[in-house]
Amino acid sequence: MAEAAVDRSSKSGLGPAGKPFSTFERLVAWRYLRARRKEAFISVIAGFSFVGIMLGVATLIIVMAVMNGFRTELVSRILGINGHMIVQPVDGPFTDYPGLSSKLAAVPGVKMALPLVEGQVLASAQAGGSTGALVRGARAEDLTKLKTVSDNIKSGDMVGYASGDGVLIGSRMADQLGLRVGDLITLTSPDGDITPMGVSPRIKSYKISGLFEIGMSEYDSSIIFMPLEEAQLYFNAEGLVQSIELFVDNPDDIDDLRPKVEEAAGRQIAITDWRQRNQTFFSALQVERNVMFMILTLIVLVAALNIISGLIMLVKDKGSDIAILRTMGASAGAIMRIFFMTGAAIGIVGTIAGVLLGVLVCVNIESVRQFFSWISGTVLFNPQVYFLSQLPAEMDLSETISIVVMALTLSFIATIFPAWRASKLDPVQALRYE
């Protein structure tokens, strides 16, 4: 019988000519995964390893997806109101901005050219209260094309703005100053009229035509849109603009458009793109994502260490079995492959379960947020603070694949040492006291 068993095992792949994992090896590995009553403790360790890998992979997928969602939302809001490419004059002011804007807008890949006049002011209400603000003077037809603003008018409309009789302010600024549509807002600029006594601040009141809500506190509390001609008069910039902001089809292709824009301008210009203006912000986001990935990877690493401890205990418990297999003709490589498959199976199944759990939570992330809000009795990610109607989650395929590869790699590495120790077990020493 023993010889027949050896013959069958050899034909099943124990010899060098066999498959990488023979049927015999798979059967033994599967048998070791099913713990008996006396091996319950080993089974508990394997269970913790499985749960640890599953939760680690799921947590990585969920957290990275939510961070991707937040980044997409922030980028869409930042780039929705600011141009992807800012063109400024070098040899003289943009007095020919209508024609220059048309030429720049005609460049392939450019959606819109927005001439702007900007200036810092102190905004105040007649009832009291004031705050610093940035006035952006833009043509009504251009602002209508800027969907981030024109599609997010919370109250009022752009009729007064288009006629040159009103301004648009952010909803947070209106709440802070206690203003509504139809009220007057007073703007004070330090760059005023020149008098014999010096420069006097320019103070002027404007009717509020509408309130917009972009979804970023920084913009909704500090920006005022004013008709371009009125802004030129207010800031003593009649007939010229300070810059022309270009909105492009693909912000990532901004480097390819730079020479085309310079050629279309036909004059000396200085170009600043959205990456340069927001370099600190996006660098912080990237660092945060990388650090979070490294920290959460430790969860998977701890689970992989549990695989090592569980397999070492299993090897000690199965010492006599290993010795019997070796005496029946099983090679050291076969023993190593058996225990490698035993540990790797925990990592593979745990990783698959983690991916499924992560995808399930990401798809239902808003329901999960509402559930935990109900459990805790508080509003998680309050829309009044974050200006997000729902929690964003955006899974990236390449990122998910990298998480899976990382988890599997750690799991496989964790099984090598215990499997190697099992293959080096001496049958004589193992059977001496049996």
From TrEMBL:
InterPro entries: ABC3_permease_C, Lipoprotein-release_system, LolCE_TM, MacB_PCD. Keywords: Cell membrane, Lipoprotein, Membrane, Transmembrane, Transmembrane helix, Transport. It is found in: Cell membrane. GO terms for cellular component: plasma membrane protein complex. The keyword Transmembrane helix applies. The chain crosses the membrane at residues 40-67, 291-315, 335-359, 371-389, 401-420. It is a multi-pass membrane protein. Residues 50-263 form the MacB-like periplasmic core domain. Residues 294-427 form the ABC3 transporter permease C-terminal domain. Belongs to the ABC-4 integral membrane protein family. LolC/E subfamily. This is Lipoprotein-releasing system permease protein. The lineage of its organism: Bacteria, Pseudomonadati, Pseudomonadota, Alphaproteobacteria, Hyphomicrobiales.
